Amino acid sequence: MTESPVSRTPARAVLPPTDSAENQRRRRWRMFKDGLATRGVALGGLSVILAIVLIFFYLLYVVVPLFKGAEMERVADYGLPGGSGPSLYLAMEEQAEIGFRLTSSGKAVFFALDSGQPITEQAFELPAGAGISSFAAGEPTQARFALGLSDGSAVVARHVYKVSYPNDQRLITPVIEYPLGEEPLEIDEDGEALTLIAFQDGEEEATVVAQTADGRLLLTHFAKEESFMDDAPELEREQVVMSFAEPSASPVSRLLLDKEQRNLYLIHDDGSLVHFDVSDKTEPRLLEQLRLVDVGLQVTSVQFLAGDLSLLVGDSSGRVVQWFSVRDERGSHALRPIREFTEQSRPIRDLAPEYTRKGFVAADDSGQLAIYHSTAHRLLLKQNTSSKPIRHVAMAPRANALLSEDAAGRVSFWHVDNQHPEISWSSLWGKVWYESYEKPVYAWQSSSSSDDFEPKLSLTPLVYGTIKAAFYAMLLAVPLAILGAIYTAYFMAPRMRQIVKPSIETMEALPTVILGFLAGLWLAPLLEANLPGIFSLLIIVPTGVLVFAFFWHKLPVRLRHWVPDGWDAALLIPVVLVLGAVAFGMSTTMELTFFGGDMRAWLYDELGIGFDQRNALVVGLAMGFAVIPTIFSITEDAVFSVPKHLTFGSLALGATPWQTLVRVVILTASPGIFSAVMIGMGRAVGETMIVLMATGNTPVMDFSIFEGMRTLSANIAVEMPEAEVDSTHYRVLFLAALVLFGFTFVFNTLAEMVRQRLRTKYSSL
C-alpha cells in the first residue's frame, strides 16, 4: 500500500497570529524593558551632570569669599576716655574688648571699647621736675613702649592683659609692667631732654636711640643678665654718640629702629632719610642717604610693616609708598620704593600696620580711613569716619577691630571684617615683588615658622608645573601608544593581537601610587646613575631596530617565511632588550669619556643646567607608562573598528597597505584617536600620586627636563590636610581645584567639538 504524497509532507509548527495575545504581551514587555533602560541611562547621565554641577558650585561657594572686600561697622563713638588732652598712643588687647590710651601728661587709661568707660587709670611715677618729651612704640606684638623724659632718662613699660576665670567667667585684668625695671633708664648723662626716641626690646638685649635737645644722637645698648633678686633683669649699659652729615637743613622728625635692632632710620620733615646699620652697637655704620618723597612734599607718617622689613611712608599728597631693602648688582642692599597706594588725596596723618599680616590702615586729614594690603597691592576699603582729621588709629591684634581718634577728641570703635586681604588678581597670577627678593617673581610658599610671614600664593608656578608634567608624559605616551595601537590593529596577526592588547590594557589596572613609589625610589636613582645611557638609548634602540629590519629584509624569502605574517613584531622583543642593555652598559664608559666622569656636573658647568634627582624626566617616564594603556586601548579600538569594506575597496583599487592606512584607515579613525589623546591628556593633567612621589614638589618655573615641578593636584594633596578650614590658604587650595576643574572641562569641551568636526568630515568615506 503506497503512502499518499500528503502523508510524506513534514508537519510545520503552527505560529500564533501576529496580533495574538501572546505576541502583544511579549511586545509590551519588550517595550517596557526598552523604556526602563532608556530612562535608566538618561537618569544616570543626568545624575553625572548634576554631580559635576554640584561639585562646581561647591568649589565656587568656597572660593568666592576670597575676592570679597573689607567691611567696617561702627560700634561706638565717645569722648576721650580719662580726658587729659590728646593721646600719645592708642592700642587694644587681643579680644578687642579693652582699649589702652596713653595721654600726653603720662597717664595710662584702660577703657571698655564698646562704651568708652574707664576701667582703670595709672599715672607713671616720673622723676621730680621731669616731663614726657618724646614717645616711641616698640614691636606691636610685645605691646612695649618708651617714654623719653625731659631730664635725659627714659621709662620702658608695656600694657599687659591678664586673663583669669573666677566662677567660670572670663576676666581680663589690664596692668602696666616695667620689663626693664621701674627706675628710669639713664640715656643722656648731661640731662638734656630727649626730643626724639626709638626703642626695641628683645630677649637678650634692648636698644634705645634718642636725640637730645642740643642735637646729639645717642645710641644706648642694654645687655640683659638674669637677676636672682627680682623679675627685672640686670642691665649692662654701653653708649655711643652717633655722627653723620645732615642731608638737608630740615631737622630730624622721626627715629625708627627695627625689631632685630639692626637698622636705624632717621627721617627728616622734607623727606630725606638716613639709614644706619647698628648691628655692632659700638660702631654704627652709615649705609645710605636718600629722599622718600618728591620735592615740595613732606613725610607726614612713617611706620614699619609687620616684620619690620618694609617702611610705609605717608606724605602730604595722600600717597603711601612701601620701601624695602633690595640687593643690587654689586651685592649691596639699598632701599627702593616697591609699590605705591594713591587712593587717598589728603595728607596721611597716621598708619597702623596689622600685627601679623602685610596689611595696614591709613588715616588722612579728611577723616577718611583706608584699608590696604601691600603684597596684594590692593585697596580693600575706603570710608569716611569723621569730619575732622584723624590723629591716631590703632588696629586690633587679630585685625578684626579698629580704634581711631580725631582732632576734635572723639574716639570711634569699629568692627572690621577683612578675612582674605592677601588675594588679588596680581598676587594669584602676576609677578609679585616680595620682601627681601631681588625682583618680582612667581612664587608659591604658603606657610612659614614666622608669625609675620608674607604668604606667596601665586598659582602660576602650579599651573606651569601641571602643564610641564602633562607635556613630558604625553611626549612619551602619544607616539608609543598611537603607533603601537595602529600596528596592533592593522598589521598584527589576530592571535598575537589577542595577547598584546589585553596585556597592555592590564597595565592600566596598576595603582598609580605603586608607579609613583617605584618612580621615586627606584627609577629616579637609576636614571641619575645612568644618565648617559638614557640618552644613548634614544639613539641606539631606533638605529638598531632599523638595522635589524634592513638585514631581515635582505634574508632569503624562505627564511623570512618561517615567521608567519603578523608575527614579525615578536622578533623585536629580544632586539630591544639587547640594545637597551648595551646602552646602559655603555653609560659609565661614555660618562668618563665625554663628561669627565659626572654628567650632572658637566650639565651645570658647561650648559648652566641644574639637575634634580626627581625631575620631569622621571615623571615623563612614570606618568607616560600610566597613560599609554588608555591611549593605546581607545586608539586600537578606533582603528580596528574601521569598516573592512573601506580597506578592501582601497586595496582593490590598487592602493598599497601603507597608502590605505594613511589615507583611509587613520582618517576614518581620527575622531577616536583624537579622543584617546584628549582622555590621556586629561588623566595626565589630573594625576596626583605619581607627580607627588616622583618629583621634588618644588614650585619652580623651569621647563628643563632635569628640574622638578609642583602640580595643582599634588599641591592640593600635600597641603590640604594642614590648611586651617576657611583660612585664605584653605580657600586658595579650593581655587586651585576649581582651576583644575575648569581647565579639564574647557579642554574636554574643545576636544569634543574637534572630534565631532572630524567625525562629520570623514563620515562620508
Structural class: alpha+beta
Number of helices: 17
The largest sheet, given as strand count, sense and whether it forms a barrel, is:
5 strands, antiparallel
Instruction: Tell me the radius of gyration.
Output: 39 Å
Fraction of residues in helices?
25-40%
What do you see in this structure?
The structure is a single chain. The chain is an alpha+beta fold and 765 residues long. It has a domain at 461-529 and 612-759: MetI-like (MetI-like fold), CATH 1.10.3720. Helices cover 38% and strands 27% of the residues. The chain has 17 helices and 31 strands. Strands 6, 7, 8, 9 and 10 form a 5-stranded antiparallel sheet that branches. Strand 20 (310-315) and strand 21 form a beta hairpin. The longest helix has 43 residues, at 21-63. It is elongated, with a radius of gyration of 39 Å.
Can you describe this structure in just a few lines?
This protein has 765 residues and is of the alpha+beta class. The protein has a domain at 461-529 and 612-759: MetI-like (MetI-like fold, Orthogonal Bundle).
Which tags fit this structure?
disordered N terminus; 5-stranded antiparallel beta sheet; alpha+beta; 765 residues; 4-stranded antiparallel beta sheet; 17 helices; MetI-like fold
